[in-house]
Amino acid sequence: MTESYEPASFRDRDARIFQADGRIFRALSPQGLEDWTRLSGSRFFQSFSQRGSIVGTRRADDEPQRLAALGDGWAAALEHDRIPFISYPYEWSFSMLKDAALLHLDLILAALAEGQILKDATAYNIQFVGARPVFIDVASFEKLPAGEPWHGYRQFCQLFLYPLLLQAYKDAAFQPWLRGSLEGIDPRDMNALMSARDLLRAGVLAHVKLQAGAQERFGSTSRNVRADLKSAGFSAGLIKANVSRLRKLIAGLEWKRTSSTWAGYADANSYAAEDADRKARFVRTAASASRRGLVWDLGGNTGRFSRIAAEHADHVVTVDADPLAIERLYRELRKDGPANILPIIGNVADPSPGLGWRGLERLPLARRGTPDLILALALIHHVVITANVPLAEFVDWLAGLGGELVIEFVTKQDEMVKTLLRNKDDQYADYDQAYFESCLEKHYRIGARETIQSGSRTLYHAIPRP
After folding, report:
1. Between residues 38 and 424, the one the model is more confident about
2. What is the CA radius of gyration of the chain?
3. In angstroms, rounded to a whole number, what is the distance separating the alpha carbons of residues 58 and 235?
4. d(CA 31, CA 284)
5. CB-CB contact of 94 with 167 (8 Å)
6. What is the DSSP string of 172-240?
7. Stretch 97-108: mean pLDDT, rounded?
8. How many whole angstroms separate alpha carbon 343 and alpha carbon 251?
9. Is the pLDDT of residue 258 over 90?
């Protein structure tokens, strides 16, 4: 039996997450056990858990054995259902972050009704199972402290509200901000981004301007602000009113962008109908060769081929650099499914790195799961020509991820490649089909291939060499 600590647990003093034998556990301190006993007996916890909005959690059936391996100081061990694939807020689309925010606020309102509250408000306490947000940090619930305010308010603003306001009001992507700081957007930075006219927009004055001013006044004060607030006599009713107003504000936010470079690619590409059907058949044949646990669809756009793979896989992760393409896919999945596709925003040429303490709190994309099959369709020319990644390096990276590969090579005779090269010097001598095949064959044997699009595109099903 082996134990390994989960990076996300570094900062929680009352609980520690660890993996053992392919299972996910949470060790609790005596205080953590007291909070869990109260939580597990509450009506709201049972309700949210039954509908899948709180991760499935129970006392570990082999608890003494798990606690003995951890040493002294731990009072209980819980076991969680495993999240199929971990994603982070800087990889979510607008509606994903919005749905996560609404779930967080709904949990607070339900907890308040039973004398409990969430002690923090980080977006990292929520994960997605397909297009469904799931709250995962059951140790964040505690008994509502008498007379104290909601201490997670500022954190909620920084990690949920401000990113949503930024995209809804300014049409500016929030993902780089959240990737740049795990603490989210600072009130003073958010205030600097808002114009005088923005003060008339819902939420800006109350939650941005006033909070930035409070930070200026109290940020370096020697006063015990928390004690001052407690003496003012906050009640559950005041917290409920604030949370309810935030929920109404966030529910009304919309991202109104309707076009982007690649969001309409599936409808506007130059594939003939016959070639599009042949490509779909090729992918289906490769995907159906065996049941896959995890499939990655890199450059998956609005998910046509992710859906094909999902018919033959437990879980599919669709990665695309275009936020609008992922936004549209998420909305479609939320409405019609399938439930086993997770869409995330990511640039293959600049994938999510390790972040946080020692670079381990938020893991790099490649360390969050080993795909059994990777789809890389109509992607390689963007990586090599647009992002200037050497072709051999890209193939090496794909091989390092593990699993089989379905990849499409697009030659320089293709109209899309001609467009990419139109305003560039052609310094891409390595972008050659024969050289590509030699790079591929270093790591894989080619199980099948098919040429489409009047000979300018070739599909390969590559199987890793033993």
Report:
1. 38
2. 24
3. 32
4. 52
5. yes
6. --SHHHHHH-TT---HHHHHHH--TGGGGSTTHIIIIIHHHHHHHHHTT--S-HHHHHHHTT--HHHHH
7. 98
8. 21
9. no
Residues contacting residue 265 through CB under 8 Å, at least 6 positions apart: 301, 302, 325
Of the chain, the percentage scoring pLDDT greater than 90 comes to 81
Check whether 207 has a pLDDT greater than 90: yes
| Stretch among 33-37, 56-60, 227-231, 327-331 having the lowest mean pLDDT | 227-231
User: How many Cβ atoms from other residues are within 10 Å of residue 315's Cβ?
Assistant: 23
* Residues 77/59, Cβ–Cβ less than 8 Å: yes
How many residues belong to the chain?
466
φ, ψ of residue 90 in degrees (nearest 5): -75, 0
Tell me phi and psi for residue 127, to 5 degrees: -125, 170
CA distance 138 to 159: 19
DSSP string for residues in 102-157? HHHHHHHHHHHTTTEEES---GGGEEEETTEEEE--GGGEEEPPTT---TTHHHHI
Alpha helices for 41-89 (secondary structure H):
43-50, 63-70
Residue 270: pLDDT over 60: no
* CA distance linking residue 361 with residue 344, whole number of Å: 19
Using the CB atoms, write b or e for 190-220: b if 16+ within 10 Å: bbebbeeebeeebbbeebbbebbeeeeeeee
The pLDDT of residue 3: 38
Side-chain-side CA neighbours of 414 within 13 Å: the count stands at: 24
Q: Tell me the three state secondary structure of residue 466.
A: coil
Query: Quick check: 444 and 426 in contact, CB under 8 A?
Result: no
Would you state the structure tokens that stand for residue 186, as one six-digit string?
Answer: 């600072």
> CB–CB of 269/120 below 8 Å?
no
DSSP letter (8 states) at residue 243? H
| Helix, strand and coil in the chain, % to nearest 5 | 45, 20, 35
Is the pTM value of this prediction over 0.90? yes
Question: What's the CA gap between 30 and 142, in Å, rounded?
Answer: 13
- What pLDDT shows up at residue 101? 98
CA distance 346 to 344: 6
Q: How confident is the model at residue 305 (pLDDT cuts 50, 70, 90)?
A: very high
Count helices and strands in the chain by DSSP H and E runs: 20, 16
Do residues 322 and 260 touch, judged by C-beta distance below 8 A?
Answer: yes
DSSP 362: B
401: left (phi over 0), alpha (psi -120 to 50) or beta: alpha
